[in-house]
Hints:
- The chain has helices spanning 17-70, 72-89, 93-103, 130-142, 184-192; strands at residues 109-117, 120-127, 146-156, 174-182.
- The protein is of the alpha+beta class.
- It folds into 2 domains: 16-70; 91-192, Gyrase A, domain 2 (2-Layer Sandwich), CATH 3.30.1360.100.
- The chain has a 4-stranded antiparallel β-sheet, with helices on one face.
- A hairpin with a 2-residue loop joins β1 and β2 (120-127).
Amino acid sequence: MLVEINLLSEKRKKDMTYWLIAVIMVLLLLVGLLALKLVNDNVQKDIQQLEAQRATIAEEIAVIQRQLDEKPVSHYEYLKSLVEKTERSVIPTSDLLSELVFLLPEYGYFLNFDFNHPDTVVFQVRFDQMSSVAAYHFALNESAYVSAVTLYSVTTTETIEFIDELENEFLPRYVANFELEVDRSAFLVKEDN
Length: 193
């Protein structure tokens, strides 16, 4: 058997870990710098777009300001006329409701009350007797606040389930649907006084 003895010293291998770590660090640094450059470019584009929008809006504001400066009196008069028109078109609902409630018979009450048009009011009222419906219709026709009254329908409601609960002998049995036209001139005269 042959024994081999090597008396030469073994060559030491170079340790590459430090070099490998250094290369990886440099690569990471380059990737980070590249990412920062891309983000910076996007931010610069956004800034340019926002500055362009700001310039456009500033031009629009300047045009509108010039228009307002040219006609300040007419603009003021226009707004003043709008306010006056609105004040003339508003009906004091509290006065109208007070009048409608005052004219109600003793055992009548409102179910619905609704403005349909500027001068038209639609409402439902419950009454205990048919004669109360007629009396209320007549009273509305005689009211100074009302220019026209229309009675659309009178229906009977079932109140049998409430008979045991109520001690009163008058049960609201009739539902009347009214529509009335409000007389604006009556409210204007009242405001002048």
